[in-house]
Structure formats: structure tokens, C-alpha cells
Amino acid sequence: MEAESNASPGCIEHRAYARVGLLGNPSDVYFGRTISFSIGNFSASVRLEPSENLVIRPHPKHDLVSFDSLRHLVSRLQNEGYYGGVRLLMAICNVFYKYCSDKNIKLKEGNFTLSYETNIPRQAGLSGSSAIVCAALNCLLDFYKVRHLVRVQIRPDLILSAERELGIIAGLQDRVAQVYGGLVYMDFSKENMDKLGHGVYTPMDIKLLPPLHLIYAENPSDSGKVHSTVRKRWLDGDKFIISSMEKVAKIALDGREALTKRNHSELAKLMDSNFDLRRKMFGDGVLGALNIQMIETARSVGAAAKFTGSGGAVVAFCPKGPEQVKLLEDACLKAGFVVQPILVVPSVLAGDDLAMISS
């Protein structure tokens, strides 16, 4: 990912985009396969400026510590939780430093100030937290001039490690999509993970994607509140969960072929099957009534639909074209959901990074 131009001497700025899990999620956490891509609708950017002391600058909106009243504070916590982006920036600095120390990568002297901006909707399943971490990691790689020493395939693991330090439970899929950009097929088989220490990530041509739409609620606070037991059941050897996850992983494999052959009717079926399997495994209480309503709104006009991530937003496909898209827009408007065409971001890898994954 190339640094963005900026007039300030020594300033480095990087942007990472929201991502859509198209097929195969959540099997990435279960040695499965996924297809994901980055979208230009929303993004996060991080700026690094050389400074006398190392400073993590709070965002005036997302790291709010001054409130109009106690009611304002409580309302804020109910809607957005306790944390903004400062903890994410601190966590990736910590993980980056430890990684470089473990790998005997020497870091130059000098301090900096990190700040961030984001317009990725919170709790929308668009990977907003990891976008901030990904952008920050790119800034650190360039500031210390060690990009060539930290393999592209390893960077998603560093991002995930930073989030796990904060108690964020997730898989590698989102981080791979944001590190690579564009459309990526990912194979997280146990054999690959054990042998390589990471999955096998294959960029695909974004032109293979048909027009897709994003649906989300502006106030997602009543999404699923019930804790999922799927992970424990999988670890305990539950045959239904294991076989269902294998089917979800197979959907990504079949989806890769459908995209390559531009078989859009098959793509629509696979998207619907992906959600249906998730629903059977997790249950409506975990998925949340609002999330299910978004799916049902899309399906009411014949569109294929599934979650972009774990819930909060939906990716929809109208195989019948513009007339069906208009029906989708009308249905979402009536239901109170935001709907917009998805803008797919091409691969962000260039130069040394591109050479690294080709070698």
C-alpha cells in the first residue's frame, strides 16, 4: 500500500478500507475458506508525524472523554461501548515492537505522533477496528523502513494479534482483505496453517464481481445479544457444527469457480446457502432480529443476501438487474435501512509488497 502524499515533511499517511465477506465466512476461524474484498464506501486512515515524544492522539469524536451530562455519557456507552481507536493504535505499536524484537529487526531511533480518522459505521460488520490497525501498521512499516522485512502474508496475523490483546474475537479473513485489498480467495486449511504459519491467499480480478449492494442499519444497537456456543461445540467435536462449517468452506471453493465462469445464478445460490447454514448453526437469538430483517428485506424482492461479517450489514446481489435493484432500494427505504452500491477497491499491493507475494 503506497503512502498518501502530504505536504508535512516526514508525515506518513495510510488508508485501509472496509471489507465484505462474500462467501465462506465464518469458516476462516475453523480452518475453512473464504472470498472477501475491500470496498471504497468506507475507510479508516492513520497519520504518523515525527515528534519529540511518542504520542497517540485521541480522536475528538471516537475517543470522547468530555460529555454534556451523565445521560450523554451513558447513552454514548450504550451505543458505542467504552473504547475508540486509541487502544487499537497502542496495541499495534506493542505487537509491532515485539515482533521486530523477536525477529531481530533493528528499529531506528525517533518518535512520532499517531492520529486517525474513520467513517466506517460501528457495529456494522465491516471490520472497522482492523482497518485502523491495518493503516497504522503500514505507517509503522514505512516510518521504520522495514516493509521489506515483514512479509505480506504475516501482516494479517500481526493485526489480529493486536486486536486479540484487546479481547476482540475474530478470524484472519478481514485482515487479509485489508492488507491485500481487492478480491481475495483465502484457504485456511489446517495443513496450510501448520506448515506455513498462515493461510494461502490468492488475489482475484475484481472485474469478476457482478454489481453488489450494501445494506445496513444506521442504529444497529438491537443486533444479536445472545452469546454463541458454536466455537465450543466445534472444539467439542459436535458433528453438526463440523459438517456445517465444512459446507460453508466448500461454498467459497464453489464460489471461486462460479466467479471465474461468471455464473451469477450459481453465485446467488451460494450466497443464500452461506447465510442459511450460518442461521442453522448460530440460531436467531445470536444473529439478532434486525440482522435477520435485513436479509429478509433483500430476499423479499428476490435478491440473494448474506452477512458481510458477523452481522450488522448485508451484501446483496440482484441477478435480474436494474429493475430488481430498484425494488431492493424501495424495500430497504420502507424498512428503514440504508442501501448503496458497493464500490470495490482494487488491490493495494505494489512494489516490494507485490514482489513479495509473487516470490
Q: Describe it for me?
A:
The structure is a single chain. α2 packs across α3 (128-143), α2 (86-102) packs across α4 and α4 packs across α5. The protein has helices spanning 70-80, 86-102, 128-143, 155-165, 173-180, 190-196, 230-235, 239-260, 264-282, 284-287, 289-299, 322-335, 351-358, and strands at 12-23, 33-51, 55-56, 111-118, 183-187, 200-204, 213-216, 304-307, 313-317, 338-341. Helices cover 43% and strands 19% of the residues. The model is unreliable at 1-7 (pLDDT under 50). The chain has 359 residues and is an alpha+beta fold. A hairpin with a 5-residue loop joins β8 and β9 (313-317). The strands form two sheets. Strands 1, 2, 3, 4, 5 and 6 form a six-stranded mixed sheet that branches. A four-stranded antiparallel sheet has the order 8-9-7-10. The longest helix is centred in the C-terminal third of the chain and has 22 residues, at 239-260. Residues 257-325 form the GHMP kinase C-terminal domain.
- Contiguous helical run count: 13
Mean of residue pLDDT values:
90
Poorly predicted regions are 1-7
From the helix content, strand content and strand pairing, which structural class follows?
Answer: alpha+beta
Major β-sheet annotation: 6 strands, mixed
Helix content: 40-55%
Radius of gyration: 20 Å
- SSE ordering: EEEHHEHHHEHEEHHHHHEEHEH
Number of strands: 10
Based on Cα principal axes, name the global outline: globular
% residues in beta strands: 15-25%
**Span between termini:** 18 Å
Topology:
Layout: E1 12-23, E2 33-51, E3 55-56, H1 70-80, H2 86-102, E4 111-118, H3 128-143, H4 155-165, H5 173-180, E5 183-187, H6 190-196, E6 200-204, E7 213-216, H7 230-235, H8 239-260, H9 264-282, H10 284-287, H11 289-299, E8 304-307, E9 313-317, H12 322-335, E10 338-341, H13 351-358
Parallel strand pairs: 3-4
Antiparallel strand pairs: 1-2, 2-4, 2-5, 5-6, 7-9, 7-10, 8-9
InterPro entries: GHMP_kinase_C_dom, GHMP_kinase_C_sf, GHMP_kinase_N_dom, Glucuronokinase-like, Ribosomal_Su5_D2-typ_SF
Domain GHMP kinase C-terminal: 257-325
EC number: 2.7.1.43
